[in-house]
Design brief:
Elements: E1 12-16, H1 21-37, E2 42-48, H2 52-56, E3 63-67, H3 81-102, E4 107-110, H4 115-122, E5 128-132, E6 145-147, H5 156-166, H6 182-194, E7 203-207, H7 219-231, E8 236-239, H8 246-254, E9 261-262, H9 269-278, E10 281-285, H10 288-295, E11 300-303, H11 309-312, E12 319-322, H12 341-344, H13 348-365
Parallel strand pairs: 1-2, 1-4, 2-3, 4-5, 5-6, 7-8, 7-10, 8-9, 10-11, 11-12
Helix pairs in contact: 1-5, 1-10, 6-9, 7-8, 7-13
Length: 371
């Protein structure tokens, strides 16, 4: 469905996509397309505070509304998550209402498609609310316009781009990118120089952690993979992730005979973008950094088990998917599993060869050089 004929120039668009990291990355091309098609528009974004730097650093986004509501879907949220989230949600709705009453938006674009996001969009006085027709949790009831999702649209990015078609702004290649500042790049360069990384070193960004325990591969296998990449292939390896991943990654590093670079908890989100842009290949789990790598144009080696790469796989970039093929339970979306055969069945050599194949492609593209 395309929006009724109306002048979308000089309009104010409010994007409701508060989390998670990968989902925000998947929504950024919409903001880029809108700003490209309607350069005089004003784009606001409601986002969880933890992910705000990625949105705040994007030149297409003019105003960022920070919220901080505890997650109810995180595997570690616990049974009392809803009781903890309710007071924060109530306060957030009141605060948003005050902010948006001052400068309301013409269109509210609800990409999050939940009951909570419907409430967030409702805080904007007036305007037209747009959401997905197939959204769950009663979300369509909040919307003035509902975008139908064809059966042929599977990937989350393609689904988000239906908003572009609805707003008569087809996405272009330039819309699929992430931004880092010169300051971010300088900070990363200094960090890597501190670890004696040379300009001609080939860097592999390794992300061994995720929110779902069923996505984990095993610290010993990551250690073996990194040792082989450093020792046999002559590459440099950086283990990256959040501060919460630091202990796990320290355990991986302690099992190694070689010395990796450890960046977990050391860099901001936008600095992580700069680190990815410096890397030749991403190797890791299905997680937010994987989507960041793909959007940054970095070739991806991704290990998949309980999730479906057709829906959330690396988008628009050269990649290799490593799976324990043949299991009927692949893509089960279980966050708890007594026997996670889908991940345990992935061999180190499979991942190693996949990384080398993409490194070779990068070298060929660079004319046979090392970097």
């Amino acid at each position: 469905m395309v929006a009724p004929r109306m002048d979308l120039q000089n309009k104010r668009f409010l994007i409701v996509k508060p989390s998670s990291l990968g989902d925000i990355v998947h929504a950024l091309p919409l903001a880029h397309a809108l700003k490209r098609c309607y350069p005089e528009s004003w784009i606001g974004w409601i986002v969880q505070e933890a992910y705000a730097p990625l949105v705040e650093g994007d030149p297409a986004v003019d105003t960022v509304y920070l919220i901080n509501i505890p997650s109810t879907s995180d595997p570690q949220a616990g049974r009392l998550a809803y009781f903890r989230a309710l007071p924060a949600l109530t306060q957030t709705l009141c605060r948003l209402r005050r902010w948006l009453q001052r400068e309301p938006y013409d269109l509210v674009l609800d990409l999050h498609a939940s009951f909570r996001s419907g409430l967030l969009g409702l805080t904007n006085p007036g305007g037209t609310r747009v959401g997905f027709a197939d959204a769950k949790e009663l979300n369509p009831l909040f919307q003035h316009r509902r975008i139908e999702v064809p059966d042929s649209v599977v990937h989350a990015v393609d689904k988000n781009m239906l908003f572009c078609n609805h707003l008569r702004c087809p996405p272009g290649k330039s819309d699929f990118q992430l931004y880092s500042s010169e300051q971010d790049r300088d900070r990363v360069a200094a960090f890597l120089q501190g670890h004696r990384l040379r300009d001609d070193d080939v860097l592999v960004y390794v992300n061994p952690a995720a929110r779902w325990r069923t996505k984990f591969w095993g610290g010993g296998r990551w250690a073996e993979l990194a040792d082989r990449l450093i020792g046999e292939a002559g590459l440099r390896v950086v283990f990256a992730g959040s501060a919460q991943d630091r202990d796990y990654i320290a355990g991986v590093s302690e099992r190694m005979s070689r010395t990796p670079i450890v960046a977990a908890g050391e860099l901001s989100l936008t600095e992580t973008v700069a680190l990815l842009q410096r890397s030749a290949v991403y190797a890791g789990l299905d997680s937010g950094p994987m989507h960041m790598a793909a959007m940054a144009g970095v070739p991806v080696v991704a290990l998949f088990g309980p999730t479906n790469p057709e829906r959330v796989g690396p988008y628009g970039v050269e990649h290799r998917l490593v799976r324990n093929e043949g299991l009927v339970c692949l893509g089960c979306r279980k966050r708890h599993c007594g026997v996670p055969r889908c991940m345990e069945g992935i061999e180190v050599d499979q991942v190693y060869r996949a990384v080398l194949s993409l490194v070779d492609l990068r070298r060929s593209a660079a004319g046979g050089g090392k970097g």
